[in-house]
Specification:
Distance between the termini: 19 Å
Structural class: mainly alpha
Number of domains: 1
Number of strands: 0
Largest sheet: none
Shape: globular
Helix content: 55-70%
Order of helices and strands: HHHHHHH
Number of helices: 7
Radius of gyration: 20 Å
Strand content: under 5%
């Protein structure tokens, strides 16, 4: 039983819940190192949610014995061209969610991939040398940090999806 595909998904959903709980505690305590703790738990929760998504993809692909059932990244399974006619209804639903940028799954994938982006210095406004030395303040786009509630909602959505998919994958 420990080697069943669903155990990895369950484990990652549980770990994401632990990271989210630690994140909530760090926000409430307001300690001096709270920003670092919050960032660490934000990243840990994204890491585990992505792992749970990959585990769910492995569950579905393993059940249907799809050719790329052991893909190392969820994106390799969540591309409609990669699945072709052999796609399952569950995987087709995941692909649909991943392809529309406003869905929770697309946002999760985007947030996870942002973890691997290098840090960027804020854009500096070009100054005219003839102007007086007054500092210009840019009100351009600032990177928006994920909120705890949003990531918790992603966890709930993924957990509900896994449970619903497992009901349809069960052989009677």
């Amino acid at each position: 039983m420990a080697n069943e595909l669903y155990t990895r998904t369950n484990q990652k959903i549980y770990f994401a819940g632990l990271a989210l709980e630690n994140w909530r505690r760090a926000e409430q305590k307001g300690a001096m190192n709270a920003p670092g703790l919050i960032q660490a738990e934000r990243e840990a929760s994204l890491f585990h949610l992505y792992g749970a998504l990959l585990g769910l993809c492995h569950e579905i692909a393993g059940y249907y014995r799809l050719p790329n059932a052991t893909a190392p990244r969820a994106e390799l399974l969540l591309v409609s061209s990669a699945q072709g006619a052999s796609s399952s209804p569950e995987l087709a639903e995941l692909i649909e969610l991943a392809e529309h940028s406003e869905t929770w799954l697309a946002q999760l994938l985007k947030a996870y991939s942002a973890l691997f982006e290098p840090p960027r210095a804020p854009a500096k406004a070009k100054t005219d040398p003839t102007m007086p030395l007054i500092e210009a303040v840019s009100v351009g786009e600032q990177p928006q940090l994920l909120e705890h509630e949003e990531v918790e909602a992603w966890r709930r959505e993924l957990k509900a999806l896994a449970l619903r998919f497992r009901e349809s994958l069960t052989e009677w």
